Amino acid sequence: MSSLAPTLEAFFSDRLINQRRVSAFTVEAYRDTFRLLLRFIYLRTGKAPSKLGIDDLDATMIGAFLEHLEQDRGNRVRTRNARLAALHSFFRFASFRHPEHAALIQRVLAIPHKRYDRALVTFLTPQEVAALIAAANPSTWTGRRDHALLVLAVQTGLRVSEVTKLMCQDVHLDAGAHVRCHGKGRKQRITPLTAQTAAVLRVWIHERHGRPDDPLFPTSRGRPLSTDAIALLIGKYAAAAENSCPSLRAKQVSPHVLRHTCAMQLLQAGVDTSVIALWLGHEQLQTTQIYLHADLSLKERALARTAPPSVETPARYRPPDTLLAFLESL
Asked: Does an H or E element contain 192, and which?
């Protein structure tokens, strides 16, 4: 094998898993980055991944790969930057094992992240949430499962990856009802449940009749729902709810939109942003600030508390000269 294969294996096994002990989600994200990169190089050069060397991954090739992600795969800039971050991490690791490639590695590390426009977050109104949840058919087992999933997702704001990992034992419905999850950054988090959500989950768990270590929201074969499956079912119910709530047609509803909806509900209820950050499991408080920018009603309330400046009503402009009056009339 060339120098790339053992270095890449050591990067995953030694650096990521043993030394840094990153989460399984990080390993999967980095793995997918290199799977895409190696497949891209093979299609471009015909060289098998096991035959590649460090010198095959120069800045020109990495740059072409990043353009391929945006132009051919339709990835957004944030995804492109996440892939580049994984590559930068690998090349920093490789710089200690292959000093002979120092110049090449530095050129790759010099590839910058792209800046991008930060759009306001999308969230659902209470009417849209009600229409989305009502779209799940309560007469079928799948519909009742999806109804419970939607109610839990909107009320707790769990990430879709956290929902897929929930087990029956993670839901506690006695006094102080709550759900426990193992979230991003290897942090365990406890989120309280409202009486309505607890009642829905109590009925579903009774019907689910699973063991403590069984998935809370399984497929018909008993396996945990995947993140893609949850995204598809949310999109399906959003499309079905458009008939009763036409405003949903203007929104692309995804699992993360439900998370944004939970945050906006908390913010509009007067909950402090530091509490919302703990609720959602944000690493930094600045991440929660995006909801302040998206909440127009909060800005309107702030505007209503301010005294308007005493400004005289402007009079209509009248040209002081006949020539100027002629020019103004053109």
From this structure: strand 188-192
